[in-house]
Write a structure and sequence with these properties.
Elements lengths: L6 H15 L3 H7 L4 H8 L6 H10 L4 H5 L16
């Protein structure tokens, strides 16, 4: 199985989501557990850790798969059909 390179896709998608949503880094920082410095590093290409992915996915209502380039679907999947 061939793996996709994720870091450039993550950086591109995070920057795109921030630009399209017209929110500031400060607003994202206040709404998540990420510091302004962490967000700037991620926007510049720093490799994300799992908590970064979760914070951005929740904030922008998208999936981690989309942020990592594993899916082209920006919309968060509805998991209501999954049995608990």
């Amino acid at each position: 199985m061939k793996y996709k390179k994720t870091e450039p896709i993550f950086t591109k998608r995070i920057n795109q989501l921030i630009k399209e949503s017209n929110v500031s880094i400060s607003q994202i920082s206040q709404a998540t557990t990420l510091s302004i410095e962490q967000i700037k590093k991620l926007m510049a290409g720093k490799r994300p850790i799992w908590i970064d992915l979760i914070c951005f996915a929740k904030y922008f209502n998208t999936s981690c798969d989309y942020l990592l380039g594993l899916s082209e679907n920006r919309n968060k999947k509805n998991n209501s059909s999954i049995r608990k």
